[in-house]
Design brief:
By secondary structure, the chain is α+β, with helices and mostly antiparallel strands. Helices cover 46% and strands 19% of the residues. A 6-stranded antiparallel β-sheet has the order 4-1-3-2-5-6, with helices on both faces. Its cofactor is Mg(2+).
Length: 249
């Protein structure tokens, strides 16, 4: 071949990692320096409903674009997408999966920005970093998603307390000192005693995050699978009801 003498470049220097077969692939997209991005665009604290709904809309578009995504979970500026164990997307080439998911999610975010922030200009594009993990069993995938949801609760409870303190006049350093070493029950008590606020009455999207998955919709004689977004506990009851997400092919 005319280019055979140059093949060594690809053979010796281009690295391709193919993800192991028979594993569920989880692609986690996470905002990079997103606190700066949120400050630049004046997001509401501790939660901006518009920004979260924009992330959910991007996740919905991801499920529509990639049929092999069986379920996704998002909180704040991150989303985890679970690809079915037998996916052959890009022959399971990690580099191509990462670049494709990152570019698609970023494109959706920019295209949908005006839908959720009609009076606010997108000053600069968001930057998302991506990491990939592989899990051999649905049970472990469920535990992974449950862990992300647990972190959502802990993070949101803390930031809710933090910003309520700051908005009430406490400095940021003072607010951090007040919350240092507090337990969940302490934070609930603080919100109730100082601000007459019941944390459990906060929107479920803030406390539980967002789960995107396909559900069967029957319309007249047709049957289709549409993407749904829910804000629910991803415990045993949820998985008993939605176990089909791991069985669809």
């Amino acid at each position: 071949m005319a280019n055979s003498k140059y093949e060594y470049v690809k053979r010796e220097f281009e690295f391709h990692r193919h993800l192991p077969a028979s594993n569920w692939i989880v692609v986690r997209i996470d905002g990079c320096h997103f606190h700066r991005f949120s400050e630049l665009h004046a997001f509401e604290k501790p939660n901006d409903d518009r920004a979260l709904r924009l992330m959910n809309a991007c996740a919905t578009s991801m499920l529509e674009k990639f049929p092999d995504i069986v379920i996704a979970y998002g909180v704040s500026d991150e989303y985890s997408f679970v690809f079915q164990e037998k996916t052959e997307l890009y022959q399971r080439d990690e580099r191509l999966i990462i670049s494709s998911c990152s570019s698609c999610f970023t494109s959706f975010y920019m295209m949908k920005w005006k839908e959720y922030f009609p009076s606010k200009e997108l000053v600069q594009p968001p930057h998302f970093q991506v990491e990939v993990s592989c899990y051999p069993e649905p049970r472990i995938v469920c535990d992974y998603l449950s862990r992300r949801q647990s972190e959502c609760h802990n993070r949101n409870q803390y930031t809710t307390c933090f910003w309520m303190l700051v908005k009430s006049g406490e400095g940021e350093n003072k607010a951090k000192e007040i919350l240092k070493d507090t337990l969940p029950k302490d934070k609930n008590e603080l919100l109730f005693q100082r601000f007459q606020m019941n944390y459990n009455n906060e929107p479920a999207m803030f406390r539980k995050g967002s789960c995107a998955y396909r559900q069967k919709v029957e319309a007249s004689e047709d049957e289709r699978w549409d993407v749904a977004v829910a804000h629910v506990d991803m415990g045993p009851h949820f998985w008993a009801k939605h176990s089909y997400v791991f069985d669809r092919r």
